[in-house]
Task: structure prediction
Amino acid sequence: MYLEEPESKGWACKDKNGLNITLGYAPQFFRYKPCLNNASYINYLKKVIKKGIQEVGLDMIGFDNVGISMEPEACTCDACKEKYVEFVKNKYRLDTEKGRKLAKEVFGYDNLECILPPAWNKWNMPIDLYKITDPSTQEWVNFKCETLNNAVKELCAYAKSLKKNIILEWNVYPSWGFNSMYWNGIDMAEIGKYIDGFYNEHDPYPKIDKNGIIISMIRSFKLARAMGNFVVPNNSHESDRHLKISIGEALAFNQGDCGRFGSPLKTGITPEARKYIAFREEHADIYSGTKSAAKVALLESCYSLSYNRVDPYYSNVAVMQTLLSAQIPFDIVLDRHLSDLSDYSVLILPDVECLSDEQGEKILKFVKAGGKLLFTEKTGEFNEWYRKRKEGLFASFTEKASKYGKGEIVYMKEIKHKIPYSYKPEEWYINPRYWELPLNHKELADNINKLLGRDRALEVKAPAGCIIELLEKEGKQILHVLNFNLDKDLKNVDIKINAGKKGKLTVISPDEKCKNASVKKQGGKLQFKLDKVHIYKVCVIE
Result:
């Protein structure tokens, strides 16, 4: 690179001692991480993009090793430090009286010319910081996110200006339960506005493990749907059965995109994989252009997930695992979706500690109009700067289930985690060993179903390992039924679904020829039984 582009000697990220920061995995010490605040580097990437599109004729470009270096190795070169000061000054609008007043409220002073990145040392390491309450560190987290967001936005806009339908995929997806904003400056909700899809090589392959824990990439797929993206997952090759579960999960939750199959040029695509790909092609109509039929929305809010490495993540994981285990269809929603929740009956806030007054007003407006709210633990007790309120946003609704306007609010004081978080240095995120169902998962599921009431679209009675996704398209309901067990089939899966006037049921599978189940219809509900689910079946109701 230095020979090709002599100017590139100044592109590398710098640590606090002015040394180049290398890639985060060994032994590739010769690969330097580039500083995204270096305009020359961004211009170089534009030349690469232009060559790829105009000379090679690419239809898709993927960006790998995306993200700010993990703390304590985020770039602190002179350009980053200058831009950090500029970022904070612009954010707080120090040229206005209102902005200076806000800065004084947050920082204690209204001159931010000398604000600096966190100065980590062996006595003060980022792994030790459980809650990010210091305003300068909070803004450093926000600055890193802004840096990456701006780079992605600029490069995407440039590529689309050269070829409108170019597909842009970025390897930015963090592990579930991991505060990527704090560690790497990755704000998926914001980046999702600009990209078409993202790669996921972090989550374990789907299964029910020996402890009964649901291991899946479903959070990744649902986040992608919320952002209008697709996911490129790796598919397992541990066994034929595991491979089929992996592809089936992608078909059900990834809008029919099967994902990546290892290294086909080296190993070839297995017959089992080809069978699933052929099934996808044969039934393309049930995968393209679908819409979620979920009536439950699970909020992932940026403030809470930025400033606390543990509690909001643990509750988010526990609630999502409960929804999956109880076969309750749900969507992930983001902060920007709070303005319009009209597609949903129930909104869940899992320990969403930090909410702005404006967000609180939007949530209560949803409830007042007839929506149902379930919130847990410290939800709304802090503002967007992690400052504790004198009274939480929903403090008046914590004693018992409450009517509010046309809606209803339920509070759960505690999500009872089976394993207390250890806070050991080697466990800096809610990793899969913490993905067990909470001890009060039945109470949580019952509360959600009670809030749904007549809007409860689906009831499933099935052995552990049955995972569902409910979609709709052009008047059809499309129910995906998956078996995450690695060693046995599901037997006798009883399904009751709100079907309205629909009454025709078709069951299909890539694994076997299916006989349509006998159907009972009563009061707009369709009842049927799947005697066996080997890996994956699709029930189409029209």
The mean pLDDT is 93. The chain is about 30% helix and 20% strand. The CA atoms of residues 30 and 516 lie 60 Å apart.
